[in-house]
Design goal:
Blueprint: E1 2-5, E2 8-10, E3 16-22, E4 32-37, E5 44-49, E6 56-58, E7 66-71, E8 76-81, E9 90-96, E10 99-100, E11 104-108
Parallel strand pairs: 2-11
Antiparallel strand pairs: 1-3, 3-8, 4-5, 4-9, 5-6, 7-8, 9-10, 9-11
Length: 110
């Protein structure tokens, strides 16, 4: 089970950290990632990270602003978002294989 948190309403230019807590210990042995779904759009992958945490990939649209990280000891996954824009408004989901978190809403508006 994955539990996402950290969403909220922010202003353009703000930063935010999303977190995802996993209850399954196999989470630490899997590549995991963050997806988002904006209103009226399909879900898209924004970042993923290897099981060991040493390799990360980002969608072109978020490179330089999003940073994915994981804490193996705490069994958590994080997504740091900076210089936010209204285009970042979406429900953000964490994912591990076939398991999805419930999503956390992020709204960016002035």
């Amino acid at each position: 089970q994955l539990q996402a948190s950290g969403g909220g309403s922010v202003q353009p230019g703000d930063s935010l950290r999303l977190s995802c807590a996993a209850t399954d210990r196999t989470f630490a042995d899997s590549a995991v990632g963050w997806f988002r779904q904006a209103p009226g759009k399909e879900r898209e992958g924004v970042a993923c990270i290897s099981a060991g945490g040493s390799v990360a990939f980002y969608a072109d649209s978020v490179k330089g602003r999003f940073t994915i990280s994981r804490d193996v000891n705490k069994n958590t996954l994080n997504l740091d978002i900076s210089r936010m824009t209204p285009e970042d408004t979406a429900v953000y989901y964490c994912n591990s294989g076939n398991t999805w978190g419930q999503g956390t809403q992020v709204t960016v508006s002035s």
